[in-house]
Amino acid sequence: MKIDLQFNSISEFHHFANLPQPEHPLVSLIDYSQVQYPVEYDEIRLVQHYYSIGLKRHVGRKFNYGQEAYDFEAGILALVAPQQVVQLEIDHQAAADPSGWLLLVHPDFLWNTPLATKIKKYEFFGYAVNEALFLSEKEEITMVEVFRNIQREYQANIDRFSQNIIITQIELLLNYTERYYERQFITRRISSHQVLSKLEELLHTCFESGNLIHKGIPSVQEIADALHLTPNYLSSLLKVLTGRSTQQHIHDKLIEKAKEMLSSTQLSISEIAYELGFEQPASFNKLFKSKAQVSPSVFRSKFN
């Protein structure tokens, strides 16, 4: 049976998963072997109002985003931000020995700390679950040790140092995640470069089709959708491979096409701006000058 759920608090999730009430209302570390979803539900569409960081092995669950699905059989780390929609398909018979950790952190727990702002800048919270982090054996051991450090502090008597110590460990966990994602981008270089090739082909088609005047300049979201990736994941991947974001790649292709048109056609600068999908020529002039260091008219004068 299917069900749509929205958890406003960590306690609500504990109740649904047949877990004891959390020891702290704003943070919880859960042993996956203790999670017991109600057997009457085999598909759950979930929105939660807290951060979720899960290191999962053999948990008998498929996580879906759109048409993409992922089975957590090896050591895989998945991160979900508040308000993200996750769909779980649960096989209650599949996993005889589920294992792993699930860390739930309400944004209020981070309030008035540097991590409250910094956590929003970690792009991997915007990745789809099928873009989850595959951990090597050594990486998994490192991550498990951080989870255990959080567990020890979480289960100790709370004092005025407890929150800062737990937050320090959470930040360490996120920094390791950032490092390991970069490793994943590099070690999967073949598939990563296939994405880069598809991006170049897609941008070439966009800028050579003559449809920009009707469709406008492609957005990062449109490009990511065409490549079946999330915008954050695509930009992170491109930054590792090329040092440039998706938006910068779009602008590079746009300026390349603009230079071609300025040097080889008789179209006015305004006409070129409209052909390239700009609603206002002034916007084209501003972008061109920022990228080429000269105005379109000065650039064109070099070819007259």
TrEMBL record:
The keyword rRNA processing belongs to this UniProt entry's keyword annotation: no
Swiss-Prot/TrEMBL keywords: DNA-binding, Transcription, Transcription regulation
SUPFAM superfamilies: Homeodomain-like
GO terms for MF: DNA-binding transcription factor activity; sequence-specific DNA binding
Matches recorded under InterPro entries: Homeodomain-like_sf, HTH_AraC
HTH araC/xylS-type domain sequence ranges: 197-302
Pfam families according to UniProt: HTH_18
This protein's name: Transcriptional regulator, AraC family
